[in-house]
Prior knowledge:
Structural class: mainly alpha
CATH superfamily: lambda repressor-like DNA-binding domains
Number of strands: 0
Helix content: 55-70%
CATH class: Mainly Alpha
Distance between the termini: 18 Å
Number of domains: 1
Radius of gyration: 19 Å
CATH architecture: Orthogonal Bundle
Amino acid sequence: MRKKLLPPIHPGETLLEEFLKPMGITQYRLAKEIGVPAQRIGDIVAGKRGITADTDLRLCRFFGLSDGYWLRGQARYDTEVAKDALRAKLAKIRPWEDSKATHPGTTDMRKS
């Protein structure tokens, strides 16, 4: 039986819990400061909307982070959600036999 893991963390939760709350910034204030509709921030925080490149750049500039910080979090979240949804199908996919010859330095994933 597979151990139930914690659900992936949406970047909106990170935004709320690690940035907005500790800094005492409201969602409305953040939206105004970075020039986006308040609904966008509300949807991100609620996990109903993902981070786009546009939003990433604005948030990174505002919080003094390197460009791509929020997009990397979104990519991690999306990947974990997809892995959970496709787990059974992914288990049936085997690497192409010749892939090691055409991609030196890669490992045989079937051993894991």
